What we know:
Blueprint: E1 2-5, E2 9-10, H1 13-20, E3 27-35, H2 52-64, E4 67-71, H3 72-77, H4 88-95, E5 104-107, E6 128-131, H5 137-145, E7 149-152, H6 160-169, E8 174-177, H7 181-190, E9 195-201, E10 222-230, E11 233-240
Parallel strand pairs: 3-8, 3-9, 4-5, 4-8, 5-6, 6-7
Antiparallel strand pairs: 1-2, 1-10, 9-11, 10-11
The chain binds NADP nicotinamide-adenine-dinucleotide phosphate (NAP).
The site of NADP nicotinamide-adenine-dinucleotide phosphate has 31 residues, from strand 3, strand 4, helix 3 and helix 7.
Amino acid sequence: MRRLLPDPGPLDDAGLAAAYRLPPGRSLRVNFVASLDGAITVAGRSAGLGTPGDKRIFDLLRALADVVLVGHGTAAAEGYGPMTPESAVGRLRTSLGRPATAPIAVVSRRASLDPGSRMAAGDDFPTILITCEAADPSRRAALADAGVTVMVCGDDDVDLPAAVDALADRGHEQVLCEGGPHLLRAALTAGVVDELDLSIAPALVGGEARLLQAALPDVVRLELRQVLEEDGVLFTRYGLRSG
Ligand SMILES: NC(=O)c1ccc[n+]([C@@H]2O[C@H](COP(=O)([O-])OP(=O)(O)OC[C@H]3O[C@@H](n4cnc5c(N)ncnc54)[C@H](OP(=O)(O)O)[C@@H]3O)[C@@H](O)[C@H]2O)c1
């Protein structure tokens, strides 16, 4: 892995962690991998765009986060489960002096999470479901009974600024959002995104699964802060411009 911008040069493990560490305080960063034409999946999963470097950064961002925020569509499509201490991320977190696990917070307007699923069975840090008043009360109750921490934020739909505030109140200040496109669009529209970390794979894929699947109300302008490279993949960090 090498850094192209700023300060070009090779990066070892410590240098890579330093390149992604955030100052203390609240933040929400989004991590995606996309092809050159903006596709985010091959045959319905992101794995077809992945490389060892992308996995390394995916794990590092998880290791640095207080909570992972993800839409139910992505959690289901990608087969999400709770973070465990013995996983690569767990070991990395420990080596960085952080708690070995962090919760996964699944955003679902309909409280779609299956109470019997692996995702619902978090031990050290229970999975969080972020939903709204409109979700079926019996589904919410079944998930709470299964050990899921149910957070109700909003009436007819999930109120993302309220959700991010509620996570911070629980001590989860540094939020890593892993998508997908519906959640990204909602988070950008709600103005809660501080940073986009986009891995750009040197591939052309086509198809309809794009980073954003519908127009945003306004163009969101970003500022390039960092570019790393490995195996032809560019690992970018963009900050969102305020105003
Ligand atoms: N390349 C990458 O880096 C990457 C990253 C992430 C995902 N993906 C891919 O993207 C695909 C999934 O796309 P997607 O757009 O369906 O994913 P998504 O945004 O994760 O999921 C959509 C679902 O999540 C819930 N949701 C999302 N935003 C919400 C909001 N603001 N308020 C309330 N509920 C919200 C809703 O669930 P309910 O219907 O339960 O209410 C909605 O139906 C998968 O194929 C996945 O592999 C790729």
